[in-house]
Amino acid sequence: MPQPLNNILVKVFARGFYKVNSGLLIFLFVILVSYCFFINTLGDVKLLPPGRELYYQFMILITFVSSPGMMLMFFTVWIFYTIKSWQYVSGQLQIEHHEFLYYSVLSAGRIQQFKGWFYMQFIISLPFVCYALLASVIGVVLHHYGMVMVIILFTILLITTTAFIYTKQLNALLEDTGQTWLINLGQSWRKPFFSLFVYHIFDRLKMALVLTKLLSYVAIISIMFSFADAVTNSRVASFAVLAIVMAHSILIYQQHRFALVYLSITRNFPYSLGKLYAQHVLTYLILLLPECIWLFINFKFFMAVGLLVMLLGITMLFHCVLYRIGLAMNKYLPWLLGIFFAISLVILFGLVWWLVPVCFGVSYCLFYVNYYKEELDEG
Prior knowledge:
Elements: H1 3-20, H2 22-40, H3 53-57, H4 59-66, H5 68-93, H6 101-104, H7 110-124, H8 126-141, H9 145-172, H10 181-185, H11 196-204, H12 206-226, H13 234-247, H14 249-262, H15 273-287, H16 289-298, H17 301-325, H18 329-348, H19 355-378
């Protein structure tokens, strides 16, 4: 790999990304460090035996390695961070004074380009990579080899996929690819309102869909494997449902962005709010179809129906929160984590089936109050 290509990509994209998103990094990592110190101050630190302070400072890392739920949250935040880096790099590629990249980067072969983008994304992801490596070392010491393998594979997969996307995107900017095969294939098909985002995913967000489904399956397997002796327990099943929704939170965000950017004219159509809400439910029902099939395969019919309704209710709650806070990712992430912890507490206290009416009720209220209000705010 030519060293100059590494330097160009790091200077143009990685350094710029860190400057623009310094606030996000402070939120993600300074708070994490503060939490480690907070653990150390619980109770009277003078009562701790000598040498135990270091143990408490690494408690959160030990929890991450040994807990599938903690690992899922870490992966979800990392994917959001990566999506944000995609948006930044894509925007920089459109800037006029970066046209020199067409000559400097494209002068190298595809493999060299891929290596350069891989190195650049590795630098952008360095805070997460360092945390993952440190957690992996602790995992090896604690003999959590399965979790360590998942962490390593996820790290390689995410950075490799990102490098592939950048390589393909930069080369595609010079080619007139025309309409995609899906658009050509489905030209004569009927396209109901609820199916538009599904077409958009298969047309423009295929890689995001693949990553989301992989994360969803990893979450399901981790939770079911960790609680293999209680897979029929409603609380374990509910945690699996919550993990599925968390894995799809990126696509939920993209659905809201798609509707706001490309379908804003539909707000003038004679659709009632109830019908629009139902259309979104149908959209997510199609998007979550593989997970729905998994529910009916692994659980009894009536329990599977209840879990399916819960899955759609939590998904709609995540979706409708965006009508309240808008497309600001720095606001969506804290809300996402807050809702996750709140629902987790409800599940732990055994109030599993209360989630169905509460999630649907709260989500519809948010949708009803903020649907048209958001349009005024955007204007």
